[in-house]
Design a protein that fits this description.
Length: about 280
C-alpha cells in the first residue's frame, strides 16, 4: 500500500507491478480499492503497473466530515490529482459501479490523460430521473435507512452480494477486509455519493469522448441490470466495445477476476492499438 497527500485529503492506494502499461482502478459506492486485488494480481507484473485508489472516505483514506465533500466529480478530481502527482499520462482508467460514473467524469474532464476507458457494471452517467416534486433529501434518508439495515444484517446489495456464485475462489482474507471496509464506510461519504449518483448528468458529454471505450458487465447483475448498462452503452461514442459475462452479477472483479483481467489485456494490447 501507499499514500498520496493531495491538496485537500490524503488517499491510500494499492500499487502493483512494474510494467510499461499503466492502469488505474476506481471502486464503487460502498466498496474500497481492495475489490480490485485479484485483477491486479492477474495482470502480469512485468507488463503492467496498476494502482487501485481508495476514494476519500474509503479504507484508509481521509474522510471529510461534510457529505458535500463527496461526489463523482470530487472523486474524479482526487484521482486526477493523484495521477498527476505520480506523473502518469497515457494510462487506462477502469471504474466499477459508481466508479464507472467517476471514470466517465474523469474522462470528459481530462481526456488527454487517457489511453483507454473501461466501465465495469457502471452507474448511468445521467443518474436517475426523479418524479416531479421528489424530495431528494427524503429519498436519500430512506435509502440510507435501508442501507444501514442491510449492512447491520450482514449483507450488502452493492458490491459483494452473490460473490462466489460463479465458483470464483475469493480469498477469505480479502472478503473479510472488504466487508470491514463496507461496514465502516462513513455515512457522509455514502450520502454524498448517493446524491451524486442520482443527480449526475454528463451523458451529453461522454458521447464525444475520443479515446477507445469499453463497457463490460455481468448479465445477472440485479443492481444495474443489462438493460440499464445497454442504455449507458448507447450514450458512448460509436464503436465503443461491449462485453457481458454470462451468469455473473454486479461484481465481476470478484466473481471472474481472471476473465476481467484477460478482457482488459485484450482491450489494452489489441483493441487500443488497432484504433490508433
Amino acid at each position: 500500500m501507499a499514500f498520496a497527500q493531495l491538496s485537500k485529503v490524503r488517499l491510500k492506494y494499492f500499487p502493483r507491478g512494474a510494467g510499461p502499461e499503466r492502469v488505474v482502478f476506481i471502486h464503487g459506492f460502498q466498496a474500497s480499492a481492495r475489490i480490485w486485488r485479484m485483477i491486479q494480481e492477474a495482470l502480469p507484473a512485468d507488463r503492467y503497473t496498476s494502482i487501485a485508489i481508495n476514494n476519500r472516505g474509503a479504507g484508509g483514506s481521509d474522510a471529510p466530515a461534510d457529505e458535500h465533500d463527496y461526489s463523482v466529480e470530487i472523486f474524479a478530481n482526487d484521482a486526477f490529482e493523484l495521477v498527476e502527482q505520480l506523473g502518469w499520462t497515457d494510462f487506462t482508467l477502469v471504474g466499477h459501479s459508481l466508479g464507472g460514473a467517476t471514470v466517465a467524469q474523469f474522462a470528459v474532464d481530462h481526456p488527454g490523460s487517457l489511453k483507454g476507458l473501461v466501465l465495469l457494471d457502471p452507474a448511468d452517467p445521467d443518474g436517475r430521473a426523479l418524479p416531479a416534486g421528489t424530495d431528494l433529501d427524503a429519498l436519500i434518508d430512506r435509502q440510507m435507512a435501508a442501507l444501514r439495515s442491510s449492512v447491520a444484517g450482514g449483507s450488502s446489495d452493492d458490491q459483494v452480494a452473490g460473490v462466489g456464485a460463479s465458483g470464483a475462489d475469493v480469498p477469505a482474507d480479502l472478503l473479510r477486509a472488504l466487508a470491514a471496509d463496507i461496514r465502516t464506510a462513513p455515512e457522509q461519504r455514502l450520502r454524498g455519493s448517493l446524491r451524486s449518483m442520482l443527480t449526475i448528468r454528463i451523458g451529453d458529454r461522454v458521447k464525444d469522448l475520443t479515446m477507445p471505450v469499453l463497457l463490460a458487465g455481468g448479465d445477472a447483475d440485479a443492481l444495474i441490470p443489462p438493460k440499464v448498462m445497454l442504455a449507458t452503452w448507447a450514450k458512448l461514442p460509436p464503436g465503443s466495445g461491449l462485453h457481458f459475462w454470462h451468469g455473473i452479477g454486479h461484481s465481476p472483479n470478484l466473481d471472474c477476476p481472471g476473465e476481467v483481467a484477460a478482457l482488459l489485456r485484450r482491450f489494452i494490447e489489441v483493441t487500443i492499438p488497432s484504433k490508433n
